[in-house]
Amino acid sequence: MNAEIVAIGSELLTPWRQDTNSLYVTERLNQLGVAVIFKTIVGDRQKHLVEAIRNALGRADIVVIMGGLGPTEDDLTREAVAEALKIGLKRNPELIAELYTRFAARRMQITRNNEKQADTLEGATILENARGTAPGQMLDTIYGEHRKLVMLLPGPPSELKPMFDEQCMPRLRELLPQRHIATRVLKAAMIGESAADARIAPIYQQFKDVETTILAHLGDIQLNLVCSKSIQEAAQGRVDELAGRIEEELEDLIYSSQGETLEQIVLFYLELRAATLSVAESCTGGLIAERLTNISGASRSFAGGAVVYSNELKTEFAGVSPALIEQHGAVSREVAAALAEGIRERCKTTFGLGVTGIAGPGGGSEEKPVGLVYIGVSDGESTEVVEKKFTGDRNRIRQYASQQALDLVRRRLM
Amino acid sequence: MNAEIVAIGSELLTPWRQDTNSLYVTERLNQLGVAVIFKTIVGDRQKHLVEAIRNALGRADIVVIMGGLGPTEDDLTREAVAEALKIGLKRNPELIAELYTRFAARRMQITRNNEKQADTLEGATILENARGTAPGQMLDTIYGEHRKLVMLLPGPPSELKPMFDEQCMPRLRELLPQRHIATRVLKAAMIGESAADARIAPIYQQFKDVETTILAHLGDIQLNLVCSKSIQEAAQGRVDELAGRIEEELEDLIYSSQGETLEQIVLFYLELRAATLSVAESCTGGLIAERLTNISGASRSFAGGAVVYSNELKTEFAGVSPALIEQHGAVSREVAAALAEGIRERCKTTFGLGVTGIAGPGGGSEEKPVGLVYIGVSDGESTEVVEKKFTGDRNRIRQYASQQALDLVRRRLM
């Protein structure tokens, strides 16, 4: 079984907006063993909609149509599906009553155009929308002698996602042949995509029944393993076996075997060891603290720290002596160590982390080029400093530096 | 004139990857007065590719095909275009020679499959690729009695973007009727999309020749004004006139009239007033510092500050008295003011900013619910505190709080 996703809305054809619902729907369909073979994005013109829907019906078993169910003149999905399938469209009195009740409950005046949201395709099952006014619809129908499942879903993600999970998924599970999909997500830090692939390709190529995808993003590698079988245990066994073999190969480069983020892992190990962390950030400028505090419950292990952009603040908040900065420069192995040691003392934490570097685009020299970063971590007894030379723009250098810093703490905790 | 964009690659049909090239290409095509009417995303199967390309040729004047030009068996774009247009495909000896030279220069062994990148469509112009091995191709041809422009471009954005700008744009400018497009981008902070639209719709609706798009994202509103005319000055005059009218209506809600970010504007005004800023962040946990330091040159006006997640650090780094925290709670008007005043003194800056709040999901109470945030700003003479109740998840609350804090500083500087 395969599917096509049709995303509707002229705003999705501008340089500023992009369909993202389809990623979510694809993930869910994949869980049912359904592959997405086409995605089409089309504006609010009935002629174009009918063409897109007919194309989709002609080549896919399942057609998921998203958007264009609202009350305005531009919302033409219902009309277009009726035309494409040559079926009727009737205003459903029960749905109109519901619309009036809903508007009244919010003390809002209902306008006439809202009634078109009650238009129902002949033979369709209504999908209730608890979070918006436009209900969805689902059709189990015949097109060109083939059976087709057609879903009409609202465009806003906050309405589409629960509707798909709560109403489409159970129906699809009933209608589709039973497949069991097992997945694993492994993550590794500070290894390039091609370097990782060179090491693990000989392994995953032996697992023809597991689909392995490598995603790389700013010092982070994500390995997605997916296996589909008629028996759940068999599928799970295969992905687990492959995951184990990859973990053996990449060893401590792998920081997560269940998809957690690096900051989640760092906080998890800190808590496990009853340890706490503080940071003194120069070139990352708050990025490491921001990443950690974005995790709920971070305060149990992360005390905080300082953004020490100026030399004065390196002294004021992390006790780095002006003489040391004078002697070695603010971007140096010595200052990174002093930042880590100083912030640890000031914050009374188990570990202190210090980062200094040149994020660019200005400020580089031949001796200390843009991208040079020193990261220090201290536990009071010993201080370790790594020197890195990252390439790319300011954002990329800062992201890599934060990734390297968090990974350094993780390794210290292992 | 209109266009269809066809993005090719099975990875673009997974839950993890998304075509983003089309946003860039759309922006460029719009600059030429060309509207994108369809986007199709298709996997690496020749049958599907041919179908997608034929559909596109049947309905659009310009067909931009991205991806599938590499050396592997999965790279089928050239073959599919040849089949769709029923034209020949020939291995180009000059391109083969270039490929061999390129590989030799990098001291890499060329493999046989690389030669297919030299396959050229009958009648095509070769688009050189300085950043990769796969050249692009451009065809000016006839399909179904209509003239069509077809472009084959490499998938990696780092290759596609310069190729489109340097080689496609000049050719398209020559081939297309001359249109002049003027644009303006206005930005406003801390106003909802529907509230903004209610105020400005009566204005922009009078400018039928200017297309106005409103984008909203986490407390930030972006208004895109686009006008296309045969004379540049006329188009520019209209967008400037509309921009002026919108600025009059929204007054100081508008922080940028040329598309700058809020953090850029804050840093610009700080520098203009020869003023400096420091921050003490509790609930935003480094996000404000991170946003400011992501701008190159931030160090001229932004000294740094502290991430004071724990109460101890509020005292240690911003001198907030434990008694004050005890009396009013860490999330209070009084502590926000003390954070702003304390960090300003410690960092010796013109302004101090203090943020405390409950980002959730835990930690809320009836009296102090999740989303409650206090933001203080002090210049040493007076301290202003705003109280806000944001809704949504942890990330959203933190983003709104950082936006509100930066906007508060901006207003103080106006």
UniProtKB/TrEMBL annotation, chains A, B:
Signal peptide: none
Transmembrane feature ranges: none
Gene Ontology MF annotations: hydrolase activity
SMART domains cross-referenced by the UniProt entry: MoCF_biosynth (SM00852)
Pfam families in alphabetical order: CinA, CinA_KH, MoCF_biosynth
Every MoaB/Mog domain range: 4-175
Annotated PANTHER family: NICOTINAMIDE-NUCLEOTIDE AMIDOHYDROLASE PNCC, NMN AMIDOHYDROLASE-LIKE PROTEIN YFAY
Protein's UniProt name: CinA-like protein
